[in-house]
Amino acid sequence: MLNFSFCSPTYFEFGKGAEKEVGALVKRFGTGAPGAGKTLLHYGGGSIKKSGLYDTVVASLRENGVEFVELGGAQPNPVSSLVYEGIELCRKENVDFVLAVGGGSAIDSAKAIAAGAVYDGDFWDFFQGRYVEKALPVGVILTIAAAGSEGSPNSVITNDKTLEKRGCSGEVIRPVFSILNPELTQTLPPEQTAAGAADIMVHVIERYFSNTKEVEITDRICEAVLKTMIYETPRAIENPNNYAARANIMWAGMVAHNNLCGVGREQDWVSHGMAHEPSAFYGATHGAALAVICPAWMKFVSRVNPDKFVQFAVRVWDCQMNFEHPEITAREGIERFELFLKKIGMPSSLKEFGAKEEDIPKFARHIGRVGETEKNFGGYVKLNLNDVEEIYKLAFL
Ligand code: NZQ
Ligand code: ZN
């Protein structure tokens, strides 16, 4: 196990009716003092109005005397133009707390606004590698189990001028509180439930496939999260009101991405880097893009480094170990993962997003940090531009 630092101080309020606490939590974690700044209420495209959550939030803020301004419209794969608008609004209205209500997109947009509002330069600097050192505090009410942004120190934004979809990091953008009521996810359509599940599983996979030895504790936590998702996702899709399934998935989504599964080990992150391109160019849903890219990545890298794939097959997918031909076991694990993704309704080719094979070089070069010949991309198997193109080809089959 490698040395690590881990500090994940988000306060979680989990369970039925938890969203009613929002006003009190903003007061507790924001400055809350009379005469202090306002809260920015930030949300997506309207699902929170349809479900009635918006009214509950507004009532709770008012009951607790929290003054607020609002900005809706964070779209899936949120864009920089709305972030600029949010930053301007925060400065104009003296905002000192940002409350995101929605999924990863509203939360990431809120985090970018929170960082940009107290930064003198262009907030996009953070998405070009500058670490976020200062931000307004961010609180969250989560409505979809997927991105894990409710517990992560990251934000992912698409620059709508250049179509670069990039991430940024900073401990200060980890939410100070996150409200997780599984009931709020019961209104999700099956394709969003499934895409969220694929995202959660790939967050674990990016950490699980590592060459760091003797990491039994994190290996076993990863396997527990994956097995939970294999059991609960079909139950939530079959019966969207299954509270137990929704609750287990919601907490799995947090555990998968606050880095509990990833400490002390090298991580990979090629699947995410590659999946951002079809999202940036074709608007592909993040989890659905991962459901196509991740198995393609697995097929490519398992040929080079099959060891961890054998463990994945046996411990996660209950495949029988073939001692004479472990590569057959490795392949079977990948096949079972693919079959699972298909069963929950995920796509299996980039064609399903409207992408074309001619896009491959454009996608590969647009990632931006992949060596032409130098193998500098990823962790489990180091890849160069040519390897990335080969993986994209596998994702078109
Ligand atoms: O916008 P509204 O109207 O709210 O509709 C959303 C959206 O259309 C809808 N939805 C959300 N909750 C709902 C609901 N519909 C009905 N009932 C509900 N309860 O679902 C759609 C998807 O929402 P979105 O927020 O885009 O989903 P998700 O949580 O999957 O977020 C995806 C974004 O997160 C980024 C992705 O790249 C993508 O941009 N990620 C963020 C990460 C992070 N910050 O740590 C890590 C991830 O790897 C990921 O990259
Ligand atoms: Zn993800």
Fold topology:
Elements (H helix, E strand, L loop, with lengths): L10 E4 L7 H8 L8 E6 L3 H5 L1 H11 L4 E4 L8 H14 L1 E8 L1 H13 L21 E5 L11 E5 L6 E5 L7 E4 L9 H19 L7 H23 L4 H13 L14 H13 L3 H19 L2 H10 L9 H18 L16 H7 L18 H10 L3
Parallel strand pairs: 1-8, 2-3, 2-4, 4-5, 5-8
Antiparallel strand pairs: 6-7
The chain binds 5,6-dihydroxy-NADP and zinc ion.
The site of 5,6-dihydroxy-NADP has 35 residues, from helix 2, helix 5, strand 6, helix 6 and helix 10.
Q: Which blocks of ≥5 consecutive residues have pLDDT under 50?
A: none
Task: Indicate the overall shape.
Answer: globular
Name the CATH superfamily assignment of the largest domain.
Dehydroquinate synthase-like - alpha domain
Q: DSSP helix count?
A: 14
Order of helices and strands: EHEHHEHEHEEEEHHHHHHHHH
Question: How would you summarize what this structure contains?
Answer:
With 397 residues, the chain is α/β, with parallel strands linked by helices. It has helices at 22-29, 47-51, 53-63, 80-93, 104-116, 190-208, 216-238, 243-255, 270-282, 286-304, 307-316, 326-343, 360-366, 385-394, and strands spanning 11-14, 38-43, 68-71, 95-102, 138-142, 154-158, 165-169, 177-180. The protein has two domains: 11-184, Rossmann fold; 190-394, Dehydroquinate synthase-like - alpha domain (Dehydroquinate synthase-like, alpha domain), CATH 1.20.1090.10.
Q: What distinguishing features does this structure have?
A:
about 400 residues, alpha/beta, Dehydroquinate synthase-like, alpha domain, 2 domains, 6-stranded parallel beta sheet, two-stranded antiparallel ribbon, 14 helices, binds 5,6-dihydroxy-NADP, binds zinc ion
